[in-house]
Structure formats: C-alpha cells, structure tokens
Amino acid sequence: MSLEADIVVVGGGIVGVATTAALAGALEGDADAEAGRAHASAAGPGMAAPRGSAGTGRVLLLEAEERLAAHQTGHNSGVVHSGLYYRPGSLKARTCAAGREALVRFCAVHGIPLERCGKVVVATRERELPALDELERRGRANGLRGLRRLLPAEIRAREPHAAGIAGLLVEETGVVDYGAVTARLAELARARGATILLGARLLRARREASGLSLETASGRVRCRLLVNCAGLQADRVARMCGVDPGLRIVPFRGEYYALVPGRRDLVRHLIYPVPDPALPFLGVHFTRRIDGRVEAGPNAVLALKREGYAKSSFAAADAWETLAYAGFRRLAARFWRSGLGEWRRSQCKRGFAAALQRLVPEVRPGDLVPAHAGVRAQAVSPAGELIDDFRIVESGGMIHVLNAPSPAATAALDIGARIADLARRRLAG
Fold it and tell me: Residue 327 sits in a domain of what CATH number?
C-alpha cells in the first residue's frame, strides 16, 4: 500500500485524534471549535494561538495499535482537571482552562456523560498547610471560580469519611470517559475526510525534497508535514525523524486499586492529598469514576517496558534504555527514597491501604481489589530534571509533541486546535 497526504499525525491517543479532527475541520461550527480562539491572547512560546477550524488538505492519522486510545488515554482515571496545580502562565495552565471548558461543551453537544462533581484536597499534617496555601493561590491565579477553603467540619460535610485539618474545595473538577471522547472525535474526523489507519506503526522516516517518506507496518506514506503525538514513543519517533528531542521518555506505571462495591460509600466524589511540590505525581487519591466505581491510586513505580501495564512486564531494550540514561540515574539519585516507598506500596496491599488511610481512616486492605494500571510518559532531561510543562518542538516539516503530561486529556481539544494551527502556518509558509 502506498498513500499520500498533506499532513500525517502519528499517535491515536486523545491528543493525536483531537489534532486530526481539528486539521480536518471536523469541529468547525461546533461549540468546542471556539475553545482556543477566546484564548488567542494567552498564546506563549512554542505554541501559537488557534485561528480557526478550516480543513487542511488530506489528513492521515497513523496508530500503531489495533484500536485508538490504547495507552495513556485509555488507562487514565478519567479526571477532568481544573488547573489547580499548574504554575500560573504556564502552557499547562492556559490549555487546561481552555480545554476544560471546550471538553464540557463537546460532551454536552455529543451526549457524552461528564459529571462536574468537584474534589476536596485534604491537608492531614501541619507541614502541608503552606503547600495548601500555594495551591489556593495558584488556583485563583488560574481563574478557578469554585474554589473554597474548608475547615475540618466542612470537609466532613462534603466527604463524611475523610479526615483532615484543612481542605480546599475545587468545584471545577469532574470525571468523564476519555475513550468515549476519543471515539467521537475520530468519528467526526472521518466524516470530514480524514483517514485513520490502525496497526500502522511507524518504522522509518526519510526526508525528501517535497516532504517526508514514511515506512509503516501498513505500507509507505508520503506527506508534506508530520505531527508527532506518539506519547510513550514520542522521543523515539523524533529521533527516527532525525530530530534530537533533548529528553528521554521514562515510563512510570501507575497502579490502582478499586473499592469493593459494598465500601464505595466511603467516597462521595474525589479526595486528594496535598502533593509534594518536588514531584510531578499527585500522590494516592480517591476517584469516583463516571460509571460509579471508586478507584484509589495511583502508586507510581518505574516501568521496565514502555507499555508495561503488569508488574511482570519487561522489555530488555526499554529497560536498558532507561537504566543507561544519565538523566534517569541523576533523577534516581535525588528521589530514591520516594521511589523506594512507591515500590514498597506496590508490593504490599497493606502499605497501599496505610497511605490511603491518611485521607480516609476507615479504609482497610480487605476493602481494596486490584484495578487497572496506566503508564505515564514522563519526560526527563539529561540533567535529571522532570520536565513538567508541555514540550513542543518544530523542525523542518515536522511538529513534535514531546511531552504532554496531565492535563493533556482535559486540554486535548485546545491542544489539538493549537497544533493544527501551527501545522497550517507551516504548510502556508
């Protein structure tokens, strides 16, 4: 098989599919297509503000797996993030605000269940209060309206089984099924002429005078512009295309438990701890899913396979690439104590339950059953720094989305619109 396209998008997670839909003009005239336009003045370095949703020639999406949303999108907790945690002015903060509202409108238009249930962030120790103050400051700076400080009695009025000396109510937080959102975006993209190929893993890429020649598991594809939204494989795709990403993806497996049905009443909505500001992880927390299940987690441990969802998952090449990377070794030297604690909880349900008891003291090991696991694509610099914000690199006829951490799913419609606009500008130039 040999195909030609104006733009090829690599990666069928929610960011790649949202980008494909925006490029195809599939959202034109829909409420969510206006998401980024209202935020044009907020555009910052590395990503232009969206200009519109007109279709852009022949658009082709390549997904390595046999289904869309097979990895990060299909394995996350379904939380619609508010923007509470992000540094004001950062790309994450801007796209989360725009993308969240776009997502709410999109789900309303297309009949996808989304519940704005809110969450409570709970401080359980005096030393966490300054960090709780900082979260409140960031939330207000990021424009959150439903933000309120809670006394212990107010925490219990909201979550009767939670314990804390102070809390923060975040009303904008919600839950949704991101797999369902991705499927609907794909339907809209196809309806407007975009082609989506499954089982089409990118194997090689070569620059040509007129663009790029791509060899995939499904055949050869020629394109004028490539957009890399490959998530867990984003750095490898960049290198395959001759671009030094300046980072490496280090996979961390997030392991979840679920409350047994008879104990789901311990959690009404979402209960989070005050996170350690030195780490990109939010700590184990409780999430009531859109289908009524209650999950607890995630534990975050190093994965020895990029798509390693089981504790036994192992790929020699992936493990060697991580362990031999100087950036990872520097990171491990700084955070080995935290990593050891995560590993211990991974091996012991009792230890996992003890961490949850800080938030909900009544939880017992017998209340927990193993649930799903996800793998986070954490970008790490050669200096051992955790890259916290989105990282977009443009090179020749390519746009590489090298780091799209949480809240990428929440912000996907806005991110997709912005990437699509970058692609249009490059084609026009």
Answer: 3.30.9.10
Measure the CA–CA gap between 172 and 389, rounded to whole angstroms: 21
- Low pLDDT (below 70) residues in the chain: 28-56, 278-280
Q: Both 73 and 165 in a single domain? A: no
Q: What is the reported pLDDT for 33?
A: 41
pLDDT of 146: 86
Give the number of domains in the chain: 2
Tell the residue number behind the tokens 């297509």, with chain if given. Answer: 33
Tell me the Cα Rg of the chain: 21
Phi and psi at 117, nearest 5°, equal -90, -20
Q: Tell me how crowded residue 262 is: count the other CB atoms within 10 A of its CB.
A: 8
| Beta bridge mates, 220 | 2, 215
The secondary structure of 346-386 as a DSSP string is: HH-HHHHHHHHHTT-TT--GGGEEEEEEEEEEEEE-TTS-B
As a whole number of angstroms, the distance between CA 211 and CA 204 comes to 14
93 token code pair: 């903060």
pLDDT at 55: 64
pLDDT at 54: 52
Residue range of the domain that includes 253: 116-173+249-380
